[in-house]
Amino acid sequence: MWKWIRVPKGIALLGFLLPWMTVNCSGQKLVEASGFGLAFGRVTAMGQAAKASDGASLNIWLILALLAIVGGLVLLFLKGREAAKLVLGTSVAAIALIFVGTYRYGKDAILADAAKDGRNSGMDEAALAMIQVHWEIGYWLALLALIAAAAMAWLVMSGKEAGAEAKLRSLAGDATAAAKDKTDDEAPKA
Q1: Out of 16, 57, 69, 149, which residue is the most buried by the measure of CB atoms under 10 Å away?
Q2: Prediction pTM value
Q3: How many domains does the structure of the chain reveal?
Q4: Do 40 and 10 belong together in one domain?
């Protein structure tokens, strides 16, 4: 199982390339961004790429999440099983950093920011009520892959990997047999 932890860690890293967030207003897409885009301040606004002119839009939390994922991958290649605690730590850290880094893009955070700045007049409030923030496939894929990597590292660390691997193989064999039986039952009889 140890060698397979690379797969979800790599998937989590690739998840940053996929769409992470879209912002819609009345069904019209206003903004979309990938995980890397959110981390480095590059978003697509109504069909045009936009880049922030200063470092203020860099999302240090998402950049740290990326570094944690890459660090976990490096540990997997350089160290043996004794690095399971560190790999578990990098996975959990990346999950936490993603949550912290994406909080500011949620609708509640946008409304709170607008109220804090005094920009929230009655008209703005109605417009903000129509805004919808959707978390896309890359976001969910990265989180799920990191959870899987953390679970796998925990199994290795706790010494339960052999039992878990045997159980997974048994389940896979049962699923294969069930699928084969179903195809045999549905095949036309000659």
Answers
A1: 149
A2: 0.74
A3: 2
A4: yes
Burial class (CB in 10 A: 0-12, 13-18, 19+), 25: middle
CA 187/CA 31 separation, integer angstroms: 49
CATH code of the domain in which 142 resides: 1.20.140.150
**Polymer length in residues for the chain:** 190
Q: Which of 35, 25, 38 is nearest to 132 (CA)?
A: 25
Do 94 and 174 lie in one domain? The reply is: no
Structure-token match 């998840």, residue found? 15
Clarify whether residues 72 and 110 are in a common domain. Answer: yes
Report the C-alpha gap between 129 and 34 in whole angstroms: 24
Q: How many CB atoms lie within 10 A of CB 36?
A: 16
Which range marks the domain in which residue 180 is found?
Answer: 162-190
